Each structure stands twice: as C-alpha cells, then as structure tokens.
Amino acid sequence: MFDSLSAKLTGAFSSLRSRGKLSSADIENTCADIRNALLESDVALSVVDSFIDLIRVKSLAALPNLQSGTNQAQAIFEIVNSELVEILGGAARRIRFAKNPPTVILLAGLQGAGKTTLAGKLAKFYLDQGNTPLLVASDLQRPNAVTQLQVVGESVGVPVFAPEPGNGVGNPVKVAEQALAFAKSKLYNMVIVDTAGRLGVDADLMQQASDIRDAVKPDEILFVVDAMIGQDSIRTAQAFQDGVGFDGVVLTKLDGDARGGAALSIAKLTGKPIMFSSSGEKLTDFDIFYPERMASRILGMGDVATLAEQAKKALDGDSTAKLEEKFARGDDFTLEDFLEQLEAMSKMGSMSKLLGMLPGAGAMKKQIENFDESEIVRTKSIVQSMTPLERRDPKVLNGSRRARIALGAGRKVQDVNSLVDKFAAAQKMMRQMRKGGAVPPAVAQSMGMRPGLGGGISAPNKGQAPAKKKSKSGNPAKRAAEERG
Ligand code: GDP
Question: Which of 25, 44, 370, 430 is positioned for an S-S bond with 265, CB 3.0–4.6 A?
C-alpha cells in the first residue's frame, strides 16, 4: 500500500546522501520532497505540516554537530524515522485484559470496513495464544453477516453466539447482553462483539453501537477502518470518536493500491493508537500494528522483525532443530530438507508479501509483483515425485530418472534439470559458507528458503563465495535488525 510513498522517500534520501556536506537549503529541499510525498499519499495536511516543521527544526539543530555529509544525511534520516514512528502512534499497545474475565472487545465501524473478517482474525490470534474467545453476532443488519460470522468462527474453531438470524431481525443489544452472561457462565475469557455498520455515518448506527457499548461495557472498543477510503477514513474516525468513542484503531485493506496515507494520520488526529492491521482476506493476513516496523517499511528498510516472526511460526521446532543439528554435524542440506522448507514456506502465506518485507524490497518491486506463487507448488511437486534416495543424493539423477520425475510432476525435463542445478548451486554455497565457519544455524535455515530455488527470483550470490560480513550499520534501525538477524 505504501509503495509509492516509500519509493519517493527513499529517493529523497538517496539524493540527500549523494550531496556531500549539507546546507540549510538542502534541508529545505528535502523537507519539501518529504512533504510532497506525504501529501500525495493522502496523509492529512495538518499532520504533514507539523511533522515537516519538527523535521526542519531538529535537522537544522543536528547539522552543525556533524562533520561529514554522510553523517548529516544519516542523522536526518533517523530524525524522520523517529518522527514517523510518533505519527504512527509511538509504541505499540496491546489489548488490555479485564481483571475479571471475560475481556470484552467491541468492533465498530462502517459496513464493509472488514469487521466480521477481523472478528475471525482476532479470535484466531487470541485462541492461538491460549485464550478462549467467544464470537458474538450483533450485526443483525447487514445481509448474511450472521452466517458469515458463523462460517468464520467455524474455520478458526471458535464458537459463535448467534441466537438471532439477522438480516434485519433481532435486537443486537440483547444479543450482546446475553452473550456476555453466556460467556461468564461458560468461562470464556474473551468476548468479541461484531456490530452492524452503515455505508455512511448515521445517527441510528451510532446509537446502536453506543447502546451495545453501554450494555456490555467493553474493555476495548476497536474502530475498524478501511484504509482504502482515503480522507473519508479520517472523517469517519472523528465521527465514531464523537458518537461512540474508541480505544484503538484497526486498519484494514492495507494490501490495496489506493493511497493509504490518510489512515496513517488517524493515530495522530484521534490520539488513539493503531493496534492491528489487516492486509488481505485470509485469516493469516493480520498482525499487531507496530509503528516502528511500519515506519521502517515506509522508509525502505523492510520489516525483518515480522518476517522472522512469521518464519518462526511456520517452521516447526523439530524440523528446525534437525536441520541445525545436520548443519552442525557438517551433513549436506538435501532435497528432503528443501521439501520441508518449501512446505513451511507455503504455511507462511503469500511469498510476494514476505519478499515485500525485505529491506530494499522497493527496488525489487517488479520482480516481487511478478513472483509466481504457483512456482512453489510446482517445485514441490517435482521434489515430491523423487524417491527418498534421489532426494538425499541428487547425483543419482540420470536421464531416465529425470524423465520419470518430470512425468510424475506434470512438468518438463528442463524444469527438473533447472531445479537440480539451482539446488546444487545453493548446496555448494552452503558448503563454502560452512568452510568459512561463520554460518549460524539461522542462516542455514534461511538458505533452504531462498526464493531463487522456488523459481521467480534467482538466488543472489549463486555459486559464489559468501559475501563478507558487513560492518555494523550506522543506522540504528538497520543495526538493530542486523543484530536481531
Ligand atoms: P463488515 O461489513 O465490516 O463486517 O466487513 P466484512 O468483514 O464483511 O468485509 C468486507 C469485505 O472486505 C469482504 O469481502 C472481506 O473479504 C474484505 N476484506 C476484509 N478485510 C480485508 C483486507 O484486509 N484486505 C482485503 N483486500 N479485503 C478485506
């Protein structure tokens, strides 16, 4: 969603870095570039102006203390980074759990904002953390909202309290009240209430949401907003703040192409933090909103922390430990290990989304967009068509074996050849890295996940000696990411 903003800001900084020692005119120009980039992405004018004022003042104050142009440019970059984190809400905030369960979360927002979808995502998120959520169907207005919630609940394995059919029938306040009593009696520790929205803000909608609020006294009211609606998201947020009040914001549809900058101004304008973000229709397209990670992405530094978390979630502990042991023993990484990695990768969700989290992803935008997700499935089918011996020792793969594998996988022999060649190159690189003695198991792990082996984007450094370990970055955000890595 923030690709063009990110590209413009990255451009502004690379031109600043190339200028040598900086003058106050350089700062003015950079401030103008940043201001234009933010306005073009729809960030609210008042937010942009106070942001730019701060950047200007802080940058001018920092310049005289720094000798080289590179250090000056870096200092300005850091100032922009930390102010961007502030705009996005500062530190991430988590849901406050009630002292006496259940913790009640009320979802409010316009129709189509993504509340029902989000209810399922939240339920799964908290279920996975060992909670016992109950979903409540209090959207009795939108056609099929109740059924949709039931389907979502079933798919995540969370019960849905839905005594009314909806589609205009039933009292949503009563349903919420009964749900709370039910949750208490059955010891659910969390209640997530889905409410009705309208296509635009109206008095009835606000009244109903306020009545439900008064009936269940939520611990958290989350305002759910579609980031694609641009400046309307700000107007809607302000209307909900006045009409119902809320404690946190959830941005949905961050996967859209529209200028989503408006939504980024919400935290600053309402004083309420963005707590979660949703970036697709799948249940996995959801995460806690971390202002610092979002700022890092917007400034072209990627989001290595989220990538690492997703990898950890997808890779099961046993296979990771097995791979680490193998690596430590000096055994080769085999196609069997590779298959396990491919399977884990499939669990991690969309490859383009994952690649988009890499630092510098903006520069690979085209390749990432063109990444063919089905290539992983095809690659998997080739490896699955091999016998265990062939997977362990690809040297036995003569012409007739390759022809058999191609037939089994429904692919051409060239595809089998290409996979085997790429695999051999990666295996060679791993051996070289191991000889260098500096390969932590985590690197070994990531080697199995190189996108080049899956197809679309070729593996960097293919067949070359490992790149020398770079010196620590002067940029604190990058350095932290390196150290985490
Ligand atoms: P509600 O009326 O607020 O309950 O909205 P829904 O949960 O029914 O969502 C409206 C539409 O938006 C549905 O088609 C969802 O699949 C879709 N949707 C929800 N969240 C996202 C998201 O993060 N990205 C995209 N692309 N679509 C979403």
Answer: 44
